[in-house]
Structures are given as C-alpha cells and as structure tokens.
C-alpha cells in the first residue's frame, strides 16, 4: 500500500475547491441531508482483493480530483444496502413521500419515481445505471423477477415497472421551457432530491459537510469494480454526532466516486454502503435510453394525477428537479437550525403548540400509546417532557408542547438543544 498524505484538510482548504463548482452541486438543505445520510449503508464487501500501489496524493488534491471530474458517460452495476436500525421492517418506506391516494393507488401510479426510488432507503438493492451527458440517463432497480427503470432521454422522462406493467411519463424540466420547446439544460438528477442513488450522489452530499467541523484524510488505497482507487476518509471533529465516518473510494484515474460507506458512531454494520461491482466509462449505446411503452401497459401522464389532483400535484413534483427545495425554510414558519456542521439540529415549532395526544384520550388509546412508547424513549429536562424516536443515524425529540428537534445527533444532544431553547 502506498503511503498517502493523511494531514487534515481544513474547511478553508476545501472550500476553495468546492467553490469553483456550481453551488447547487454540493449544497444540501439540512433536512434533506438528514434523509440522504440516513440512506448511507451499502454493502461493505465490494472492494476486491489487493490494495494497489498508487502515487502519493493529499486530501486536498483528492477532493479537487472529485470536484474536477467531468466524466459524463458511463454504465455499470452497483449495490446499495441501508441499515437504519428502525424498530419495524418497512417503516422507512412508510415515511417516504408520495403516500397513497383516494383509491389506494399512489400519485402517478405504481411506476411513479418518487415512490419507487425512496425504496432505496431500506434493505439491499442491485441497480444498473447508464449516463450519456446531461440529457440522457437511465437507472434500473433489479428485482428477483422484475425490473423498475427510470429513463431521462432529452425532453422526456419515462418510468416502467415490469411487475405491475405500469408506465409513468412526463416532460423533463428542460422540456417545459419556452412553451415546451427543449433547451439545453443543466444535468438532470437521476433521482428525486433527498433520494440519492449512486456512489457519486452520496459523495457529493457528504462533501457538502466539509468545513472546519470536519477532518478529511486519505486513508490508503483499494480496488473497486476492477479499478484502482484512493480512499477518502471524512470524520466529524465534533462530539455528539451519530455519524462515525464517511469513506469514499475515488477512481485514481478520473476522480469518479466508486464506493461510498457511511458508518455510525455506535459501530456495527455500515448504515449505508453503496458501490459499483462493474463500471465502464465508454459511451453507452443510444438504444439504452430508447423507450416505448409495452403493448397493453397502463400509462399515467404527469398532467393526469391518479388521485385527481390538479396538474401541480404530487405526481408532477416527482419530475427530476421539481421536488420542493427545503433550503430557505430556516427562520420561516417556526423552522430553525441550532448549531452547525455534523451536530446541526432542526427545531420545528408545530402550529398551536400541540404535541402527542394524552394517553387514554380519544385521540390516543392505550394500545396506541403502548406502540409509541415501544418506538421511543421518554425524556425530561428544562423544556418539560417528551419522547425521543431513534434510528442508528437520525434521531428526533418530540416535546409535549409540540416542538420537534431532529438531527444526526445523540439523544443527549437533542435534550441539550431543547433545554437551551427553553431558556
């Protein structure tokens, strides 16, 4: 293994690099970052045997290499595993946006991207992806006997669920400008914001946290999907975060993130582990992005929501780039951010100052109270009393007066934040 420069990279050193890229590429709203980080728990055993002997590189140079990477053509297969430590299987999926419609169906039909792609927040999944510049991308989730694909081809977005034989169709964001005529647009994301899918998606969100609260070092080399890679290690300097570390395997030749692993401070299995098993940086065939609905398949158009909502409903918001941004909410409607960096906590005041209904009331039967108690821990402090709901990464405190404190922090950190706010 080649010795690598493991000196810490400070926020000042890294901000110069990131600042040269478009801000939107790295800046992630705190609430979205929480959800995204919660999906970081991919299959760890993706690096093949042998640590390649590579030239020395500093942490700053490696971050620069990622930021400067301009590979827009690739295809490959990768795996994602997430282990949030939720008390009930499938609970993560029930928290996903897009819920059920009046007829039990989901907005945009069974093939709607916002529902399918959020399934990646739990379990282990095998995906196949391809990209050819900013106007053509394809992402497929492979099942045992089925496949779900989202295809962005110039001015159109198609999604097809082979299990239900349903198709979702919409115009891509760049196809809605100037009366529907397609214009050259920035890269369309491969998944709705808040639902990162590829190792690069995860890496860019992790790099958004780099600053004076973060240690960034080069921690050896690895081989991923047959490619030589450097390993970038990102760790919080602050105490109180539930995040232990983020490890990114970076292609030594072109700077593309090949593998991403997020570990919890409590140890154990990775919370999120995503990495390529096969990757090819050649131009994909044009036929990869061609799609025609199969004969007999049910097709749902974006301007015809399945639940009867207007054309600005949730189905249309599922389009890449159309989900509402959470950035800018801070300071509005009772939303506030306490602290900074890895220990940031979102404080949300509920309308009317109401928390959970009282036990034994019509709104909270004893059975329901028992279920809530099994999911959370009762806590008290200067703020009064409340319940902390925990996962391995993101925890939330709901006080009895209706305030919510949520972040990738420990239970004690949430209580301290609530106590400080009560002064």
Automatic annotation (TrEMBL):
Keyword DNA repair appears in the UniProt entry: no
Membrane-spanning intervals of the chain: 26-47
Name of the protein in question: DUF2092 domain-containing protein
Compositionally biased residues, Basic and acidic residues: 173-186
Residue numbers spanned by region Disordered: 91-113, 173-199
Region forming the signal peptide: none
Entry-linked SUPFAM superfamilies: Prokaryotic lipoproteins and lipoprotein localization factors
InterPro entries membership: LolA/LolB/LppX, Sporulation_related
UniProt keywords, alphabetically: Membrane, Transmembrane, Transmembrane helix
Organism (species): Streptomyces durocortorensis
Family matches, as Gene3D superfamilies: Lipoprotein localisation LolA/LolB/LppX
